[in-house]
């Protein structure tokens, strides 16, 4: 069935990477034309539009050799996967050319930053591969969703919120320093930090963590444009990883962040780690939330997580 790719349905987000994705799109389009590859492109016209576009493509697809090729960042990839899944399509594979600022999903799967290298791998692909993605149900607002990277409550979500509000982000993206926007936001958020109570249920374990500060469920090691928050996490183990970091003293928190940046083993009192296919996290206070770098707003969160999988069209799978 998957001997060759006959047809690419493409979604391109011109706003990803602070607009740098436009150059990637031109490279991809020119190369596909040069190789005589059959494709159709749709451009994301506004925030969230990729969900609608992917939904339509997945719902009305009448060919069994269609691959959805996504050009954008983690948020665009999230929306494409969400649209496919919401359409009830579990057979259409996703190919991905990273063109965002963080590109954590690409980093975790060792997908090249060079569009022509990625395209080569996509066009050489013979069969789809299954990759873990996360699924969540947030009970307080009855919200359901999917994530390719992570869902976080607390510190990381406050950083995403601050980075997205930052006027500097667009400029830093244009000069290829997108990660710096997150680093600057981290310092801003650190000055306003507060701890919250997190209740975690995993299997028979029921923990109450009174002074949580980072509470992130992740599909792979990276967050925020390359921070290896959970080095052992994998997209092919059929499990999700939850890391909860307590807020004790600011200098301990800085020390822990340094350990994360230096990729040291996070084996300290005050760091809680859970790995399972199903997880439950609850906060009693209003907190920021984020999903793959997209804001979830503020609310008390009651999050049920499950691991599921998605077909990807991306050459030999080589995850970290
Ligand atoms: N035409 C558009 N104009 C403005 N924003 C758009 C448009 N199309 C999509 N978006 C929004 O652009 C946002 C950013 O996309 P994306 O996350 O892919 O890029 P990024 O933030 O640069 O990369 P990363 O998530 O990897 O850091 C998404 O929230 C998406 O909804």
Task: Please write out the topology.
Elements: E1 7-12, H1 21-35, E2 39-43, H2 49-60, E3 66-72, H3 74-86, E4 94-98, H4 104-108, H5 115-124, E5 129-138, E6 143-147, E7 150-154, H6 155-165, H7 168-174, H8 178-191, E8 196-202, E9 205-218, E10 222-223, E11 227-228, E12 240-246, H9 250-261, E13 271-276, E14 278-283, E15 287-291, E16 294-299, E17 302-312
Parallel strand pairs: 1-2, 1-3, 3-4
Antiparallel strand pairs: 5-6, 5-17, 7-9, 7-15, 8-9, 8-14, 9-12, 10-11, 12-13, 14-17, 15-16
Helix pairs in contact: 2-3, 6-8, 7-8
The structure holds adenosine-5'-triphosphate (ATP).
Spell out the key features of this protein:
alpha+beta, binds adenosine-5'-triphosphate, Diacylglycerol kinase family protein, 9 helices, Diacylglycerol_kinase_cat_dom, globular, 320 residues, 2 domains, four-stranded parallel beta sheet, Tumour Suppressor Smad4, Rossmann fold
């Amino acid at each position: 069935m998957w001997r060759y790719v006959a047809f690419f349905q493409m979604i391109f987000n011109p706003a990803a990477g602070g607009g740098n994705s436009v150059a990637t799109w031109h490279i991809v389009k020119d190369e596909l034309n040069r190789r005589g590859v059959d494709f159709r492109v749709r451009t994301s016209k506004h925030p969230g539009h990729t969900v609608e576009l992917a939904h339509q493509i997945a719902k009305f697809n009448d060919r069994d050799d269609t691959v959805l090729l996504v050009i954008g960042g983690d948020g665009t990839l999230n929306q494409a996967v969400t649209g496919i899944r919401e359409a009830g399509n579990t057979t259409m594979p996703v190919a991905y050319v990273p063109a965002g600022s963080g590109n954590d999903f690409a980093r975790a799967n060792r997908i090249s930053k060079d569009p022509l290298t990625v395209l080569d791998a996509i066009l050489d692909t013979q069969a789809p591969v299954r990759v873990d993605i996360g699924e969540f149900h947030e009970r307080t607002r009855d919200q359901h969703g999917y994530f390719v990277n992570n869902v976080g409550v607390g510190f990381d979500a406050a950083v995403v919120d601050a980075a997205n509000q930052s006027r500097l982000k667009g400029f830093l993206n244009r000069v290829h320093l997108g990660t710096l926007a997150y680093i600057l936001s981290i310092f801003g958020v650190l000055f306003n930090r507060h701890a919250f109570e997190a209740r975690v249920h995993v299997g028979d374990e029921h923990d109450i963590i009174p002074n949580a500060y980072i509470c992130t469920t992740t599909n792979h090691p990276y967050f925020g444009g390359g921070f290896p928050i959970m080095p052992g996490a994998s997209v092919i183990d059929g499990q999700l990883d939850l890391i909860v970091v307590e807020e004790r003293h600011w200098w301990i928190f800085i020390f822990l962040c340094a350990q994360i940046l230096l990729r040291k083993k996070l084996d300290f009192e005050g760091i809680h780690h859970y790995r399972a296919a199903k997880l439950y996290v609850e906060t009693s206070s209003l907190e920021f939330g984020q999903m793959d770098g997209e804001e979830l707003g503020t609310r008390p969160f009651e999050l049920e997580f499950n691991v599921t999988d998605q077909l990807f069209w991306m050459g030999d799978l080589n995850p970290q």
